[in-house]
Design a protein that fits this description.
Blueprint: H1 21-24, H2 65-68, H3 85-127, H4 131-140, H5 152-165, H6 176-185, H7 194-213, H8 219-244, E1 249-252, E2 264-267, H9 274-279, H10 283-299, H11 306-325, H12 337-345, E3 347-350, H13 366-378, E4 382-385, H14 388-403, H15 434-450
Antiparallel strand pairs: 1-2, 3-4
Helix pairs in contact: 5-6, 5-7, 11-13
Biased composition (Low complexity): 10-22
Biased composition (Basic and acidic residues): 199-212
Region (Disordered): 1-69, 199-222, 397-465
Length: 465
């Protein structure tokens, strides 16, 4: 289920008639008041299928998502240039050749499919199985599914493509078949060592991650990406609820008033009344509050300094410990981690990036703290609950280490008044002479009187003022 219609006081935008149905099913609030930002601009919805204008040159504006995240990789802006008549004729000829080759491929492929169907029918008769069973094996077996990994062939094609197509225009770039032939003819890409192959794979993986997670260079491209993902989330959540009965609620908002997309929400049909029943607010009220919080926090966000990274890492570690141990008063103990955390709470911290398990406040490198913070945020470093067998194994290991003379538990420093009998203070007048009590009172009063500052009425020397 997509987000339900907004309240009567929140008008929705009218999308064009040629907008895809999935986009039309997601209502878009046009006027969402933001109390902390009264000058919030009106955001008009951008159809997902809209094509950019060919005559417009896109420049990096001063208020884009890429500008506010300068440390993030920014995807390059596509250069849109007008083609000449010669280039148009060349492209038309290439399209005709490719179309003829494709038609020839389709004819031969149809013959192959027909022969394959006949062979599959004979196989069904010989083994006395249903045709659907063979189709299921063909679709689910791992031997018939292509693995989308950074293999060596794709890595070579990527490297050669960067070499030959880097300075070419969009219409003049070499086809994949031509690049594949260049790879075969290049002696430098043959008989590579293991280190060279690993380097090529890493370059391809890094390029894929940049295309996947790189910041959009303009607000328009960011809005198009936002609407496309919103449509995908809507379909997936509805399918998940229909297939498994899972309930889901998702909120989406901008993090800057300059962003070219609007806040929205999506929920499954069985979670439509969650906000009203549990929080006493409708979905649009929560979306507005979420937008206010996101825009405010993006302005007051602390830089990645040593102090801020230490604070954030400490909060993430202790918050994850409370969640994993199901104990709201749980706190991290770095000195006695094996006994006070693992043995007492039954959880273990996995994926620690620093060379030693110490408090983030004892790590003095910004790079090490940033690496730890990224691992905690993305989930590479997480808290894991231990089974009874793992707890028993850990306990035996601690006993063996202690028997070998290793200090397993670091004891606290002894109190300075250890061994001195303690008890309630004696009340005045009990067990003490009256003269001693009166002398104590007079001494206390004289001391308090001596600490009173002199009055300005009796100060004559200007140095005392």
């Amino acid at each position: 289920m997509s987000s339900s219609p907004p309240p009567a006081d929140a008008p929705t935008a009218t999308l064009p008639a040629d907008t895809p149905p999935a986009v039309q099913s997601v209502p878009v609030p046009v006027d969402i008041p933001v109390e902390s930002h009264p000058s919030s601009p009106q955001i008009s919805p951008l159809p997902t299928g809209a094509e950019p204008e060919t005559s417009r040159t896109y420049q990096l504006g001063p208020a884009t998502h890429a500008d506010s995240n300068s440390a993030t990789f920014v995807q390059p802006v596509k250069k849109l240039s007008k083609l000449s008549d010669t280039q148009k004729a060349s492209q038309k000829l290439r399209r005709q050749i490719a179309q003829e080759a494709h038609e020839k491929l389709i004819k031969e492929f149809n013959v192959l499919i027909e022969r394959h169907s006949n062979e599959q029918a004979d196989l069904v008769k010989r083994h006395d199985v249903k045709p659907e069973y063979l189709d299921k094996l063909k679709g689910t077996s791992k031997h018939f599914n292509a693995k989308r990994e950074a293999n060596l062939e794709n890595s070579k094609l990527h490297k050669k493509s960067l070499e030959v197509n880097a300075d070419r225009a969009v219409g003049d770039r070499l086809h994949i078949n031509d690049i594949r032939q260049l790879v075969k003819d290049d002696p430098d890409l043959q008989n590579l060592s293991k280190a060279q192959e690993a380097e090529l794979r890493e370059e391809l993986t890094a390029s894929r991650e940049e295309k996947k997670r790189g910041a959009r260079p303009t607000n328009r491209s960011a809005a198009q990406d936002y609407h496309r993902h919103l449509e995908w989330f809507n379909d997936e959540i509805n399918s998940l609820a229909a297939c498994t009965g899972a309930a889901a609620v998702c909120f989406f908002t901008r993090t800057s008033l300059e962003d070219g997309f609007e806040p929205n929400w999506i929920c499954s049909p069985n979670a439509a009344n969650f906000a009203e029943d549990s929080l006493g607010r409708n979905m649009w009220d929560i979306t507005r509050l979420f937008e206010q919080w996101a825009c405010t926090m993006s302005k007051v966000r602390k830089p990645d300094s040593l102090a801020s990274l230490r604070e954030q890492c400490s909060k993430l570690i202790n918050g994850g410990l409370k969640t994993a141990s199901k104990l709201g008063t749980a706190a991290m103990n770095y000195q006695n981690y094996n006994t006070q955390v693992i043995e007492r709470l039954g959880v273990k911290l996995v994926g620690w990036t620093h060379n030693k398990l110490v408090s983030p406040y004892e790590i003095h490198s910004v790079d090490d703290l940033r690496m730890l913070h990224n691992a905690l945020v993305c989930g590479a470093c997480f808290w894991m609950r231990l089974s009874k067998r793992e707890m028993t194994r850990h306990k035996v290991d601690m006993e063996e280490r202690e028997a070998a003379g290793e200090v397993v538990v670091k004891k606290r420093k002894a109190r300075s008044d250890k061994g001195i009998p303690k008890g309630p203070r004696k009340k005045p007048g009990r067990g003490r002479p009256i003269e001693e009590e009166e002398a104590t009172k007079r001494a206390g009063a004289a001391k308090a009187k001596s600490q009173v500052p002199p009055s300005n009425e009796y100060i004559e020397d200007s140095d005392l003022e």
